[in-house]
Design brief:
The chain is α/β, with parallel strands linked by helices and 106 residues long. The chain has helices spanning 2-10, 24-36, 83-93; strands spanning 16-20, 42-44, 54-55, 58-61, 72-76, 102-104.
Length: 106
């Protein structure tokens, strides 16, 4: 799969996979990456009803509890209009680099 190969080429493939989007559509989109690469270590979401839950043995955290950048690659699968730009802005403001530390996949 293209995204796995891209992450490997970036040099970030030793990091844990974190999926931005804990809803069913995001989890479904992430399944192919998980099957081709590695299981998600956790999920990130802005919905207070999802934060604190555990999905497939992985925690759901909010923006204020992101994993350490050195240990994580974030792939965002949120298809809501404008969400990709918001996620990009939030991560860049925190020092994450697109194409190395995170990817917007939806």
């Amino acid at each position: 799969p293209y995204l796995r190969n891209t992450i490997e080429r970036s040099g970030a493939d030793s990091r844990d996979l974190w999926v931005w989007g804990a809803g069913r559509p995001a989890r479904k989109c992430a399944q192919s990456l998980e099957a081709a690469w590695k299981k998600a270590a956790g999920f990130i979401d802005i919905d207070p009803a999802k934060i604190g839950r555990v999905i497939h043995d992985a925690p759901v955290v909010g923006l204020d509890n992101l994993p350490p950048k050195a240990n994580a690659v974030i792939v965002a699968y949120v298809g809501t209009r404008g969400a990709g730009e918001t996620i990009r802005r939030d991560l860049v403001q925190r020092g994450w680099l697109e194409g190395i530390d995170f990817w917007i996949a939806a």
